[in-house]
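Entry for the shared binder. Reason: the reviewer on the internal report wants the predicted structure included alongside the sequence.
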Amino acid sequence: MRTVEVMTISKSEESTSTGPMAWLNKEKRFVGTLCAAAILCVLVAPTPEIAMWVGFCFAAYSAIANDSIQTIGTFIASNRNREWWQLWLFIGGIFVLTMTYSWFTYDGDVSHQRLMAKGFDQAPTSFHFLQILAPLSLVLLTRLRMPVSTTFLLLSCFAASGKSLGAVITKSISGYGIALVGSLLLWGILGRWMHKRFQGPANPMWRVAQWFTTGCLWSVWLMQDAANIAVYLPRSLSVSELLFFLAVPVFGLGYMFKIGGERIQEVVNEKASVVDVRAATVIDLLYAIILYTFKIESKVPMSTTWVFVGLLAGREIAMTWAGVAGKDRTMVSAFKLVSRDLIYVIIGFIISLLIASAVNPEIGRSLFGQ
């Protein structure tokens, strides 16, 4: 009887730890932490020396939780059998090398000159509390499983004018269109062939190819998106500032790998065949080519989220049209899936414009004619 009683209690405790109450308690803790962080933003805003590092830390976490899944989401999904720390050391090592290279090459600038573009080249000397609060809105949207553009949500708060922000918007939307068309063509033409070829166990060389393409993609992505977290900081960092800049995202990446990706990872997992190492390699390769092309095209920052969503949208539509996305996948369901992702990034875009307009009224007058 004693054993039965203990087993009954254990089952009850297990049910409680995974049931509705556990979920509710977890959400309460999240909301409480977010509110405390928001109060901190208001308190530190008048002190620029503290505000810039608080904003940087919030931005680093929000970018890792939301934006970085674009580049390493397929890597996580297709390497579930690997120890999390192996993936972390690989990705974290590339982060350190890429950022340190920029620091050495561009006289202390870690943004690969993305912040040298007109309108973003001056480091902030004072902060509006909304600029520090902006990353928290990204954390909230990530919690809701929404792929939102970190570039729009963070960089727009620091845009010197509507013209500089308009250049970012134009480049990002064109990135979505090119990624959509490119993936439609690639999987429209080769979708059936890849589906037939990518059957059964993959050759071990595919794993090597995937790690190589993921490393290249991650590095190129950082060359674009590091500006989103570096925008809070001086445009030329000292050695100690560089070390802190490197440490915060690296530890954040470790946490993300340990939990298997933030909630936004589900946006990747629900797409057709992303867990196959061969499919993941093709996705990463095309994404890296598009991002590198835009990198050398101009120094203007851009939203990689829009490129990523366009890439997955074109692939999903093409594979469904070719009949290789799964028996239960129809064109209607495919369009619903890609439309939902597009609506999410548009919502984030609207929120970013509202925040930017509140911080800098000139932007609102320029974009909305107010």
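Summary line for the report: The chain has two domains: 1-44, 48-365.
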